[in-house]
Design a protein that fits this description.
Blueprint lengths: L16 E6 L2 E8 L2 E6 L13 E10 L2 E12 L6 E3 L16 E2 L19 E4 L2 E4 L2
Antiparallel strand pairs: 1-2, 2-3, 3-7, 4-5, 5-6, 8-9
Length: about 140
Amino acid sequence: MPRYIVAEAAEIPEGKTKLVQVAGREIGVFNVGGKFFAIANRCPHEGASLCRGRMVGLMAADEPGRYRVSREGELVRCPWHGWEFDIRTGKSWCDPQRTKVRSFDVSVESEKIEGPYEIETYPVSVEKRYIVIDA
């Protein structure tokens, strides 16, 4: 699987996000407690940019008027309709079995990565009237 350098860790402070482009996709990279997570930047409900949403915690209540917040900053709330997704997994908080945004593996490399950088290419051929990509 190809790997992409998208930012230096210092560019994304704790509790913040950075929108990046990877292979034609918009991906949000989130810093949650010093750990980095990446999810697709498109809410599955109506396509809003999740990177424009707020990083929030999980709110729970044992009785009316008494609530507590846990997992502070581990969910992102869609800015359009308030759907919430777990930043660590991409799963919807309300319907984790059926609704989610794609999540991506993230790593922080400690050694400096030197260029020149290469783009991923694929062999292309034309067979009769069809264009074929070997991947």
